[in-house]
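Input record, target 12 of the design panel.
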């Protein structure tokens, strides 16, 4: 897909759905106030030119992921915040390393995860994607189809399964292609992941990223595992619920509306959506605050993306002609 085609697709995804009376669904949906409050909170947590998750400095990977999720929102929501978003995008471009990719921090060596989300963020906001970044990602692919952070780093088997799977799903999204080896690797990892009452957010992120691939990229075997995983899992915290809602919207599941209502009701008074309850700190628990902060930012970004997707998908899911691209048949 060319950059021009990508931008046309993004414009189509951001276009308000017409109600037939000259107005738009985006202006009439009750979610509008919640989304606006969430955006205000997210921008209030922006430090310097980006966001951070678990450190005292702005993080490239966190900033890229937040920008990618903001790229899911229609322009009528982002308009007031466009200067800040453009400044963060400029900072992201300037943070590219000599290796061709991006590191966890502006002065860190390039690694595949940050690079993949930086590419996704730039593309979703209509920016050009450097060829060197795509070349760096391809160097990180292993014989088994998985992607590792550094092509010359330690033995890939030393990485956890979910870490390699998360990087692989993001790399395929950035490259806009997935080899049979890569999809086979992801299929196997999801198949071996037991679905329990509490699902790690990492696996939901992997499913969410796979469902963001271009239609037809994921083969039937992988889609079947994603669908099984999403159908069987249940969550209790808002961080995971936001990801589950994104997946449910992509899959047009009937439980989406009840899940969306539950997620919306968890919005805090400051406009944010809380992270994992296990990380709720006491006022004196200074050491836990960075972890909580990261979860709040990521949870809010995911939920804003999901709520915006829901606004652009009015009516019944089954058989509807929706503004968001329809998943390939599987």
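The sequence produced for target 12 reads:
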């Amino acid at each position: 897909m060319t950059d021009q085609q990508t931008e046309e697709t993004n414009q189509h995804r951001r276009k308000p759905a017409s109600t037939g009376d000259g107005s738009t669904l985006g202006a009439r949906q009750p979610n509008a106030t919640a989304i606006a409050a969430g955006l205000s909170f997210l921008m209030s947590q922006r430090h310097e030119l980006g966001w951070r998750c678990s450190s005292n400095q702005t993080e490239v990977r966190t900033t890229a992921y937040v920008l990618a999720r903001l790229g899911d929102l229609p322009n009528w929501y982002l308009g007031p915040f466009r200067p800040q978003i453009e400044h963060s995008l400029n900072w992201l471009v300037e943070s590219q390393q000599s290796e061709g990719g991006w590191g966890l921090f502006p002065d860190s060596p390039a690694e595949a995860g940050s690079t993949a989300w930086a590419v996704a963020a730039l593309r979703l906001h209509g920016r050009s994607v450097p060829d060197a970044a795509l070349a760096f990602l391809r160097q990180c692919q292993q014989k088994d189809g998985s992607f590792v952070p550094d092509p010359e780093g330690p033995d890939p088997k030393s990485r956890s399964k979910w870490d390699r799977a998360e990087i692989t799903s993001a790399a395929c999204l950035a490259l806009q292609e997935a080899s049979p080896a890569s999809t086979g690797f992801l299929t196997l990892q999801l198949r071996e992941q037991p679905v329990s009452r509490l699902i790690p957010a990492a696996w939901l992120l992997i499913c969410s990223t796979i469902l963001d691939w271009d239609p037809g990229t994921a083969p039937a075997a992988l889609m079947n595992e994603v669908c099984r995983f999403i159908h069987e899992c249940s969550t209790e915290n808002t961080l995971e619920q936001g990801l589950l809602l994104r997946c449910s919207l992509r899959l047009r599941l009937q439980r989406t509306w009840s899940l969306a209502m539950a997620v919306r009701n968890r919005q805090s008074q400051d406009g944010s959506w809380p992270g994992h309850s296990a990380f709720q700190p006491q006022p004196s628990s200074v050491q836990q605050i960075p972890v909580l902060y990261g979860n709040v930012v990521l949870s809010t970004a995911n939920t804003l993306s999901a709520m915006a997707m829901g606004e652009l998908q009015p009516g019944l899911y089954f058989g509807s002609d929706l503004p968001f691209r329809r998943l390939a048949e599987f």
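The longest helix spans residues 289-311.
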